Amino acid sequence: MRIVSGLYGGRPLKTLDGNTTRPTSDKVRGAIFNMIGPYFDGGRVLDLYAGSGGLAIEAVSRGMSEAVLVDKDRRAQSIISENISMTKEPQKFDLLKMNDQQALKQLSGAFNLVFLDPPYAQEQIVAMVTLLDQQGLLSPDVMVVCETDKGVDLPEEIGALGIWKQKVYGISKITVYIH
């Protein structure tokens, strides 16, 4: 895997072996950014189930100012740290080594872009989007990008957010919510 485009374009990304994470393929990552960007003029990105960190690193590569990556798996944290080092700009990244609930208690400020690719998609996505919104962590122009298996049907609306775009790529479904 590699960074698809932007400042770090072409640089390799390390991923975890095994079934603990499902890294977003280069093709799907490129398609996601074509849906939502493809480039940004600053802003904050949150990747709540970071895995390898590829989505958040791609977002910074394409112009986001800073990223917060959250993962509770120690092996994933090690891979994320290596991938952040590859950027040569570690100051743009903050890795929180904890679960989603713990992270939400520590986070502050609004995010412009949020990636959610949790292991148990539907229930966790609805709960997390609701909590992020209630805690004021979503900017008025936020895009919440959810990656699920193609068979998962997310609600049309979650709180004040509604589906803006939705596409299926192979076995993955990408759903983008906006205010």
From TrEMBL:
Broad enzyme group: transferase
Source lineage: Bacteria, Bacillati, Bacillota, Bacilli, Lactobacillales
Any GO MF annotation of the entry: 16S rRNA (guanine(966)-N(2))-methyltransferase activity
Designated name of the protein: 16S rRNA (Guanine966-N2)-methyltransferase
Superkingdom of origin: Bacteria
InterPro entries (alphabetical): DNA_methylase_N6_adenine_CS, RNA_MeTrfase_RsmD, SAM-dependent_MTases_sf
PROSITE patterns: N6_MTASE (PS00092)
Keywords, alphabetical: Methyltransferase, Transferase
E.C. number(s) listed in UniProt: 2.1.1.171
SUPFAM superfamilies according to UniProt: S-adenosyl-L-methionine-dependent methyltransferases (SSF53335)
